[in-house]
Write a structure and sequence with these properties.
It is built from 7 helices and 15 strands. The longest helix is centred in the middle third of the chain and has 13 residues.
Length: about 230
């Protein structure tokens, strides 16, 4: 379980982050603070993995606050101002979210956080991490669809769009397949072609230059054959 603090002097901003974060079951909010000084005793007493921090706050800015910490946790800045992006880069923060924060953009920030975790930073046994996450959100028709990864058959690229084929539906979302490949758990998914990512568990057969899933033959690109062969040799 990843333990978090939200620091923001705007109650509405805190509520937005709280609501977005509630979807991710492996995150727990330890404290919600209206300024950085309130967060200090919490950081001293508690093990904190991730800090959501506003920048323009009374008493001390978020940038100066993070600089003052000798061993800061991972940080995601949440701000209405673009002017501090260079400071954020120098502080090596996980992400820099501009308000108002959409759920889609927030999800990408969480993915960035999960990607930079080292094994020693992973949550306790039984919790989920990037390679064991059991769902993703796909935006389509002005909604975010929660898709269980166990239900996915394969993803097909259509330029700037991706079609997710599941056991009971088809979802078209604006997403590059390269980015999707980076966010999916490699233990369950394999890219076999520049236009296809497949669920390993849904493979029915493998032939000369194709993989069959749900009765459909999907092409295997030459550059992707070594990874498929590695899978077959296990």
């Amino acid at each position: 379980m990843y333990r978090c603090i939200i620091i923001d002097d705007e109650p509405i901003a805190i509520r937005v982050i709280r609501n977005h974060l509630s979807v991710f079951t492996d995150f727990k909010i330890v404290a919600e603070c209206s300024n950085a000084l309130e967060a200090m005793p919490v950081l001293q007493k508690e093990k904190i993995d991730l800090l959501f921090c506003d920048i323009q706050m009374p008493q001390i800015t978020g940038v100066d606050f993070i600089r003052s910490l000798s061993h800061p946790p991972k940080v995601i800045f949440t701000t209405a101002y673009r002017d501090y992006a260079i400071d954020a880069f120098e502080l090596n923060v996980v992400d820099y979210l501009l308000k108002p924060i959409s759920f889609e953009r927030f999800t990408k920030a969480i993915d960035h956080f999960m990607a930079v975790q080292s094994p020693k930073d992973s949550p306790a046994a039984g919790a989920t991490n990037q390679n064991s996450r059991d769902f993703i959100f796909l935006k389509a028709d002005k909604k975010h669809y929660k898709v269980n990864l166990d239900d996915v058959l394969y993803f097909e690229s259509l330029g700037d769009y991706v079609i997710a084929f599941t056991t009971d539906q088809k979802i078209v979302t604006k997403e590059r397949i390269g980015h999707l490949s980076d966010t999916l758990p490699t233990s369950h998914f394999l890219q076999i072609h520049r236009g296809y990512i497949i669920s390993i568990n849904k493979i029915e057969s493998v032939g000369a230059g194709f993989v069959e899933i749900n009765g459909k033959k999907l092409p295997v690109g030459r550059n992707y054959k070594p990874e498929l062969q590695k899978l077959l040799s296990h």
